[in-house]
Write a structure and sequence with these properties.
The protein is mostly helical. About 80% of the residues lie in helices and about 0% in strands. It is built from 20 helices and no strands. The protein has helices at about 1-20, 40-50, 55-60, 60-65, 65-75, 80-90, 90-130, 135-165, 170-205, 210-220, 220-245, 265-275, 280-285, 290-310, 310-330, 335-355, 360, 365-395, 400-425, 435-445. Helix 3 (about 55-60) runs antiparallel to helix 11 (about 220-245) and helix 12 packs antiparallel against helix 19. The longest helix has about 40 residues, at about 90-130. It starts with a helix and ends with a helix. About 45% of the residues are buried.
């Protein structure tokens, strides 16, 4: 506490010196890396935010990377294997909404992030123990616990991003977080099979024990993410004291009934999110090309949106490009890799431009709840559409499935157009240019 007060006095003294009010006993200002108001310190915070979700994304697709080994060693069929994903996804139709509410109302973003990181770590350990003890039910339970933390941790990550970078860098920050998520998934798909073979050679045979040890080693990434959560919480609390962030708070608290008062632009953002992602995520499972493209391009698109503003226009471009790619897959004989590359580019652009818009239409005390609700309905949409898509593919074939996806993206496109018109009619700021956002920010600080 005393050290933090000294740091605050050092900053104030540094500011006084710059204003010409010299003090002979004034302490020296903090170094750039230690000053929460300086770019170098914020870059450190950004790195921690990116690695905060790395472990969760790495371990989420552990089952996919080890599908052959899990089915063989645990003696389960494909239907039972898919339960490892079902136990993660279905609870999050509800849980990540309440996770966001708990971040806003009960825990705060710091404790919420730490608690949900612990759930991710515990879930991965239980999942690995299920392999070691040859108990598939324990592996399922581990995935359930992992899911409780996984999606809610993503909500906390978004809340941190808005807290530290709301303004001209927010789109870039979301792009970097998406990029790190894609890197985590890609590293998992390329590493876990190799790691299993090394464990098999070390232990002398394949089997549940080898599988469990491999998963336990993979869980080290979750420990690293927990460490990031702890350091991030300390730095955030320290920055709040030094920069006196608490003085800007309104004192308002979120209530569950506030959901019914969400604005029309926010509901349109939710519709765009659900209708778009249900037409993209099934293809991510079919081809890693979408991940490979989105990893390097997400920061580039995030920087582009930061420099230009016009979030709604960029979302419109992403949705139209996705629509074109699905039409190419459905109605042309062109090489499908062309359409998949377009899909990867549009997916990266949409994520950078869409998710930050929530922060423009929601008060800060409702951010966690809003992001949690957005991910909840996204999970619900993905869960339902996956079943519907499977039924269409089995009964009608690939062409009808593509027409169904085109219909979903078309609904997303209609919602983007409505969002533009509603925001314009209400005099909103969703489609402000970068210059307009900077002017608005300056006017609020005066």
């Amino acid at each position: 506490m005393e050290e933090e007060d000294e740091e605050a006095r050092a900053l104030l003294a540094g500011g006084a010196a710059r204003d010409g009010r010299d003090s002979p006993a004034a302490p020296r200002p903090l170094p750039a890396l230690c000053d929460p108001g300086r770019l170098a310190h914020r870059i450190v915070v950004l790195l921690l935010m990116c690695f905060l979700g790395f472990g969760g994304y790495f371990c989420y697709d552990n089952p996919a990377a080890l599908q052959t080994q899990i089915k063989r060693d645990m003696r389960v069929n494909t239907t039972k294997f898919m339960l490892l994903y079902a136990w993660y996804s279905w609870p999050n139709v509800v849980l990540c909404f309440f996770g966001g509410f708990l971040i806003d109302r009960v825990f705060g973003k710091r404790w919420g992030t730490i608690i949900f990181s612990c759930f991710v770590c515990i879930g991965q350990v239980v999942f690995a123990l299920g392999g070691i003890f040859n108990a598939f039910w324990l592996m399922e339970f581990g995935r359930f616990v992992f899911g409780i933390g996984g999606e809610s941790l993503a909500v906390a990550q978004n809340t941190y991003a808005v807290s530290w970078f709301k303004g001209k860098e927010l789109n870039l920050v979301f792009g970097l977080q998406l990029s790190m998520a894609r890197i985590g998934s890609t590293v998992n798909m390329n590493l876990m099979g190799w790691l299993y073979s090394k464990m098999e050679a070390s232990l002398g045979s394949a089997g549940p024990t080898t599988l469990g040890v491999t998963l336990m080693i993979g869980g080290i990434t979750c420990i690293l993410s927990l460490i990031c959560a702890l350091v991030l919480a300390y730095l955030d609390q320290r920055a709040e004291r030094i920069l006196h962030k608490e003085q800007g708070k309104t004192g308002e608290v979120i209530k569950l009934t506030d959901v019914k008062d969400f604005s029309l632009p926010l509901w349109l953002i939710f519709v765009i999110c659900v209708c778009y992602y249900v037409a993209v995520f099934p293809f991510i499972g079919l081809g890693n090309i979408v991940y490979v493209i989105s990893a390097p391009m997400s920061p580039v698109f995030g920087l582009l949106v930061d420099k230009t503003g016009k979030n709604v226009i960029w979302v419109l471009c992403a949705v139209v490009t996705t629509l074109v790619s699905h039409m190419m897959l459905a109605f042309t004989m062109w090489n499908p890799w062309i359409a998949m590359c377009l899909l990867g580019l549009s997916y990266s652009l949409l994520a950078c431009a869409l998710w930050p818009m929530v922060a423009f239409v929601v008060p800060e005390h409702q951010l966690g709840t809003a992001y949690g609700f957005m991910q909840s309905i996204q999970n619900l949409g993905l869960a339902i559409i996956s079943i519907v898509a499977g039924m269409i593919l089995d009964t009608r074939g690939y062409l009808f499935l593509e027409v169904f996806f085109i219909a979903c993206v078309s609904l997303s496109l209609l919602s983007v157009v409505l969002l533009y018109l509603v925001d314009r009619a209400q005099g909103g700021n969703l489609n402000y240019s970068a210059k307009q956002r900077e002017e608005m920010k300056l006017s609020h600080t005066e």
